[in-house]
Specification:
The protein is an alpha+beta fold. It contains 17 helices and seven strands.
């Protein structure tokens, strides 16, 4: 074959390797098989089928087209399966890739592919750090530089990437010798009279494996980043939903201390309600809960606050649509709103006041309102302090949680007038039960934020 045609086939070969690997990583099933450190035998078989079948088809095309050699990546794929799946996967993949060659009389392809996959799998077991496998680069000069630099303070001669590079080149040399001595028993593209083209053939094998590993590694890094972002969102959500104002605990304990002297039964009741609140906080591992449970939690919270303020100074009025109580909302959504109304609206009002809790459904939205007839805030005061942060840390946390969970689908507004009170209104999308929360909800939100 002319050197020019060989170089064209090598370029197409690299394109085929990149196209196949890029197509594979679009599948969630394949990614779940690929990015595992430990696999059961069945999972190894599935991984082999995913990777080897497209290349096996390419080998069939080589025999049917007679002149299209670029689709034959059986040698490189056997090495790839061994290095990412282990000895069993490499050997099984090598055998599968050799089937078309066996049918057409290339008997040496089977033992050679088996040997290549097994050796690559053995190299995988020798890697001290599995990240060395994914970060393999065909540019060996960088690995040599790292090896020399690492050996300066503390000698260590073994470098996995150099070892793998040497193995690929060595096995490619074996394939060359087999094809020269037994041309009908194994296929190999060779250039006998041009050393530069021969070097390009060897380089193409190394680069094809490097391209596929780089594509897989880029997806692996993206998945890791999304997982870290998801864990960060979970941590932030737990920190926000479990936050209770320390002043509330301090004031409650003071109230209990006072009640113990003249009303022990009432003190016992307040202790029970406080224990219920704390138990809910400790057990609230879910990010969402039915609105009904949120109002039950608020009932306990307000009962304690009524003990502190007195029934004549703190009145609670509920206007709840029964159909809205089954809608799922973020856990601990209402407590900061009610606490804000008491602390900023009613605490400084001598005669006390009322808190109005409302819920209804309208236009495929859940509307929740917390209103008080307290001292309120001036418009300029709200403007100076910001839309969400003007009324305390709890309100800022609620705003942040809604943004994290719903994005622009949720809306929160504050309407406050000095001397008249404050109305906080939240509009949320409808979720009827916890199972209605989309699978991968946090993953989708993390990808949006990335």
């Amino acid at each position: 074959m002319e050197p020019r045609l060989i170089l064209i086939h090598l370029l197409i070969k690299l394109g085929v390797a990149a196209a196949v690997s890029s197509s594979l990583v679009r599948s969630k099933e394949f990614k779940s098989l690929l990015f595992r450190e430990e696999r059961r035998f069945r999972q190894k078989v599935y991984l082999v089928l995913w990777v080897a079948l497209p290349i096996t088809i390419g080998v069939w095309i080589r025999f049917s087209a007679k002149t299209f050699f670029a689709g034959d990546l059986s040698f490189e794929t056997a090495l790839l399966l061994g290095v990412i799946g282990g000895r069993w996967a490499g050997s099984l993949g090598g055998a599968l890739l050799a089937l078309p060659a066996l049918v057409h009389g290339e008997w040496a392809a089977l033992p050679f592919n088996l040997l290549s996959g097994f050796i690559a799998g053995q190299l995988r077991t020798m890697a001290l750090d599995k990240d060395d496998i994914w970060s393999f680069s065909p540019f060996i000069d960088l690995s040599i530089y790292r090896l020399i630099r690492r050996n300066l303070p503390r000698p260590r001669l073994f470098d996995w990437q150099i070892m793998f590079f040497t193995t690929v080149v060595g096995l490619r040399f074996v394939q060359t010798e087999l094809s020269r001595n037994f041309p009908r028993l194994i296929f190999s593209v060779e250039s006998l009279d041009n050393l530069w083209v021969e070097a390009a053939i060897y380089a193409a094998s190394v680069i094809a494996i490097g391209i596929e590993l780089k594509i897989f590694n880029s997806v692996r890094i993206q998945i890791k980043l999304e997982e870290q972002e998801r864990l960060l969102l979970h941590a932030r959500m737990e920190a926000l939903q479990n936050q209770v104002n320390p002043h509330f605990l301090f004031n409650t304990l003071n109230s209990i201390s006072s009640l113990v002297r003249f009303d022990p039964d009432k003190a016992r009741e307040v202790i029970f309600k406080l224990a219920t609140i704390l138990r809910r906080l400790l057990n609230s591992s879910e990010a969402f809960a039915p609105l009904r449970e949120e109002f039950e939690f608020i009932d306990n919270y307000l009962d304690i606050e009524i003990v502190r303020f007195g029934r004549d100074k703190l009145r609670v009025v509920k206007e709840l649509d029964p159909a809205s109580l089954d809608v799922v909302v973020p856990s601990m959504l209402l407590q900061p709103l009610v606490e804000n109304s008491i602390k900023h609206g009613l605490a400084s009002k001598v005669e006390g006041g009322s808190i109005f809790l409302r819920s209804r459904m309208t236009d495929s939205k859940l509307v929740i309102e917390v209103e008080d007839d307290g001292v309120g805030m001036a418009a300029a005061q709200l403007l100076d302090r910001g839309r969400w942060h003007g009324m305390g840390i709890g309100m800022a946390n609620i705003s942040e949680r809604l943004q994290v969970l719903y994005g622009d689908a949720a809306h929160m507004t504050i309407d406050s007038h000095e001397g008249k009170g404050t109305l906080i209104r939240i509009r949320l999308p409808l979720l009827q039960e916890a199972s209605a929360i989309p699978v991968g909800f946090y993953e989708e939100r993390s990808r949006t934020r990335l």
